[in-house]
Amino acid sequence: MASDHIVKSFDDELNQLENVIAEMGGLAELQLADAIDAIVKRDPDKAEKVIARDSRIDALERKVDQQAIRLLALRQPMAEDLRAVVTALKTASIIERIGDYAKNIAKRTVVLAKAPSTGSVKTIVRMGGLVQAMIKNVLDAYVERDIKKAEAVLKSDGDVDLLYTSLFRELLTYMMEDPRNITPSTHLLFVAKIIERIGDHATNVANNVCFMIRGTEAPDRPKGEGSIFFTDEELTPKQKETGA
Amino acid sequence: MASDHIVKSFDDELNQLENVIAEMGGLAELQLADAIDAIVKRDPDKAEKVIARDSRIDALERKVDQQAIRLLALRQPMAEDLRAVVTALKTASIIERIGDYAKNIAKRTVVLAKAPSTGSVKTIVRMGGLVQAMIKNVLDAYVERDIKKAEAVLKSDGDVDLLYTSLFRELLTYMMEDPRNITPSTHLLFVAKIIERIGDHATNVANNVCFMIRGTEAPDRPKGEGSIFFTDEELTPKQKETGA
What we know:
Two copies of one chain form a homodimer.
Chain A: H1 10-40, H2 44-75, H3 79-112, H4 121-144, H5 147-177, H6 182-214, H7 237-242
Helix pairs in contact in A: 1-2, 1-3, 1-4, 2-3, 3-6, 4-5, 4-6, 5-6
């Protein structure tokens, strides 16, 4: 019975909390990889599995919320410890959202599998690979309290945005060439946009990690929303000119 | 000098925190209204003002974060009080995101003002009106601790989704009719999607309000992500059949 009375240290409990978040992050990374793979292989069964698995991430978020609230109530942490618990809450909520996005990509796969194939899928795969690496790296930065790794994630978001912008233009061209391309291209456009948004969310986690370590916001904090959806910059000069 | 030493009660400080959130919410509501109005009036100057004003919402979120962390550290609240502070943190982060979305609509307005007008703007205005009401009502529910109002917000999200789905189909038809419609229709599609997402975020706040009051998740918690982007259900039966 003695083991019942062993009181864990705050650090142990925080560690446990962060392990749940690492598990969530690993799962979100896998969900994104599988959702994109389902598009490439035109495999609706794989997509259905991604959709079904999302509830596991949701359950883990509730676990983080409960553990964090318990930690705040019982341990009443201060300063860096307090920031760590608040960061855990925020990070779990962002990863839950990444899971939702992966599920949404999977939902589109079910439709895309019926549509004619297009060449833009390769760019989707490249974007997906970059963003998966961002998720992995930001979780490493989080668990290892590594501010340099977090800052590297902030920088890598620009590559994703560039790929997105070029893919956006490509898809718009396909749509203009042949009306039959409109529906599948619109879906791919949204898939690309979702992947780009996941990258933004990874930068939000990176900002939270910087805040947790430093106790202040990054000085030139990229907000991770510069291109929530495509805007002026995404149009070719000709499109801008003609508005068409 | 005596006033320096007056110690405010926890309730006063929480109240102050919630006032900042109400201010953020009012501002986000205004930003959405102005962004949509800028589309209707094809007024890029108004859109630019929305873009510039977003930093005020960001600053208010940082204020909420600081005050909440201070409250947690100094007051060490328990049970319902603790849930209230955690809900404040989560709510501020959602409203900040709503502000980002409004800014993004405004960015699109700058492009749309140059494009030919289409009739779908009326539906955008209706969607915008519904979602503005959702933001207002969920903030009332939050400040008044009114679970019935929060639940009403959860229900009203369905109307927004219906409008979005019908608008989506309409825009796809325009795009297929004339390639010159593709660019402006794609922008309006994203604007509609953003408004629908803001509605989802309002339901997320409503869920948080239910959690704060009850201490448990809603039993059949709508996750507010059922249609992050359009999926199978958005296609007409014919589109589903032909994949085009």
